[in-house]
Amino acid sequence: MFTGCAICAAVGFVAQDVSAQAPSGIKRNVTARKDGPIEGYETLEVFVDIEPNFVIDWHTHPGTEAAYTLEGAGELRVKGEETKVLKPGFSWLTPPETPHTLKNGSQTTKLFVTFTVQKGKPLSSPASAPT
């Protein structure tokens, strides 16, 4: 019923190619990319639009995801945490390699996400739903 993080939606997609092909249901706009904060990592700033009722499956990131909800609503599940309701003004942090999923509501949801991830690794990788 739930899926992964809206910005994390690029399962199997390498951070260097973040603006390449977004999965259907998600539109990404990378507005900034910078090496660091330490060697071997890069920081990406991304605006994400998620189509109504779209579900992002369970996934992880090779670094930290910090997200802020600009518009819309949805449900976010993060392993080991209670389900969170996304609404404008809601923000969250997802630690590296932590499975999470997102189920969008009935309208387009717009997010601003900052990823600080290891270079050369997929921005997002599929993960099993926690038991």
Automatic annotation (TrEMBL):
Record-linked Gene3D superfamilies: Jelly Rolls
One Pfam family of this chain: Cupin_2
SUPFAM superfamilies per record: RmlC-like cupins
Residues in coiled coil: none
InterPro entries recorded: Cupin_2, RmlC-like_jellyroll, RmlC_Cupin_sf
Residue ranges annotated for the Cupin type-2 domain, each copy included: 47-109
PANTHER family: CUPIN DOMAIN PROTEIN (AFU_ORTHOLOGUE AFUA_3G13620)
Name the UniProt record assigns to this protein: Cupin
Organism field: Methylobacterium gnaphalii
Lineage of origin: Bacteria, Pseudomonadati, Pseudomonadota, Alphaproteobacteria, Hyphomicrobiales
